[in-house]
Design brief:
The chain has about 600 residues and is of the alpha+beta class. The strands form seven sheets. An eight-stranded mixed sheet has the order 5-4-8-2-1-12-15-14. Strands 24, 25, 26, 27, 28 and 29 form a six-stranded antiparallel sheet that branches. Strand 14 and strand 15 form a beta hairpin. Helix 4 crosses helix 5, helix 5 packs antiparallel against helix 6 and helix 5 packs across helix 9. The structure holds zinc ion. Zinc ion (ZN) binds next to helix 5.
Length: about 600
Amino acid sequence: MENYSPVRYEIRLADAAAHVLEVSCRIEAPHPAGQVVSLPAWIPGSYLVRDYARLILQISAHSGGQPIPLDKTDKSTWRAGPADGPLEIVYQVYAYDLSVRGAYFDTRRAFINGVCVFLQATGAEALPCEVTLRLPEVLPGTDMARWRVATAMTIKSIDGRGFGTYSAADYDELIDHPFEISDFTVERFEAGGVAHEIVLAGRQRADLQRLCKDLPRICETHMRLFDDAPPMDHYKFLVNVVGEGYGGLEHRASSALITRRGDLPEPGREAINKPYRRFLGLVSHEYFHLWNIKRIKPAAFTPFRLEKEAYTTLLWVFEGITSYYDDLALVRSGLITREAYLELLGEMISRVWQTPGRFRQSLADASFDAWVKLYKPDENSANASVSYYTKGSLAALALDLTIRLRSDNRKSLDDVMRALWQRYGKTGRGLEENGFEQLAEEVTGIALAEFFDGAIRGTDDLPLADLLGEFAVNFDLLPLAEGTENGSLPEGESPAAALGVKIRDDRGRAVLATVYEGGAAQAAGLAGGDELLAIDGLRVAPSGYTTLLRQFGPGETVMVSVFRRDELLQFVTVLDAAPVLRCHLELDGAASEDELAALHDWLQVGN
Ligand code: ZN
């Protein structure tokens, strides 16, 4: 019975000033030939090898109070012992990563992802685990004495502030419940009969009542879609509020979000402005993952093998379809209008249409190569690759509208998602590489091979103009104004010329973030990373770039001056016409009754 004793971890918030956590891992019955332990190389939900073992500062092994040998066998792995009795490994972890994928510890806050701190004992992955969190060493002048703990992990025995012991059924569960430890604000609400909390760390004065009114509508919209009991019995949004930042990571009963202070709702503001809409979209995205990736998972992640890359062509299913339903749920829940939804959709289409790499890389390839492409962007990414988030969300839209059209609105992507949940999510069976396509055909009775050949395995542009036209939406492409936030100019003005670049404002310097394939700048010899100084001898500032460009016409020859590293270079450049790549969507005032009915069925406004 000894073998079934839990693996016990203890975390001490040891040194806030040095950002050091002290962790111990106790294994009651280590392997008699020596116990192998390792830290994951990556965290589920973020497909980049991050080598968390690099965070370990110091590590040693003990048994019966005596030190025993500990040999490092590769970048992430150690072998301890052999030991006669229980084995204890003690280590220090450096924690100063503010992202949702790491561990962080300073005098304001600790945030811990399990992959950073919990050694995995080989052969003991299925054993239950326990974590004891000790009270922090309080530094004078800090609020550390008021710190509390927020996590969705199962409570074993804790004090009023949440310090104490938590438990998990196995290692997989152990690393799927991050900890927020700080003097945070917490509000509670119910959605679908399940207790939810929103935990806000960092300085903020958000309208909490507003959040507790709006968030349940999103949660319940997703629950309604899957038409089953919620897959968890409690849920926590762990939100880190910062000045600048955006991101999220999904977990089985919580999510870690990072958001701009300005994206949270202000007290007294009734309308949902664009920043708050972005926050609601993020919440909606991570919550949809409760089904789509946390439970409906590719076979390649069943089980997770976290020591190296795990390849699948299906990330577009998990991130693209989730990115489609995140904004769709905002309109279906009635939080935003149909017009606001079409604005979001138009922005997404513009982003993809402005990515020439979509003709080079398919969604299946983008998924497979996430590890070396999406997560390792460079100045040529826009020419070489496409995002399975953005184009994936449009492929989901195209698939949804195709199914609706070809089934006379009797079937939709919603039916496919429900079937995925029943067959894969509920059973824990991994989704095979061809499983999504097969299930979509089975559920809808529609032959979809041609769609998947073009949209997923191929690089055809998605037929969105035609499809949306059948749902009372007009699709227009307009000239793009280079250097503006959304590609448009004030009413009545239209862009004429273009360099074929994307500008990044690097502390007041106009740097070429992208030089588009086939554009004027590339033809002249300009390169990504060049600092743009002048056009025809006139100085360029990031804020004045668009205005300056408007002085020239397409076909005109100009001298472009740049710094490449520290060398001043001049390029004779023949300007392009402004590319027609900005999408504008609008409800069709002359739509037929059938088209309007199809639109209503799709967006479900008022439900
Ligand atoms: Zn996601």
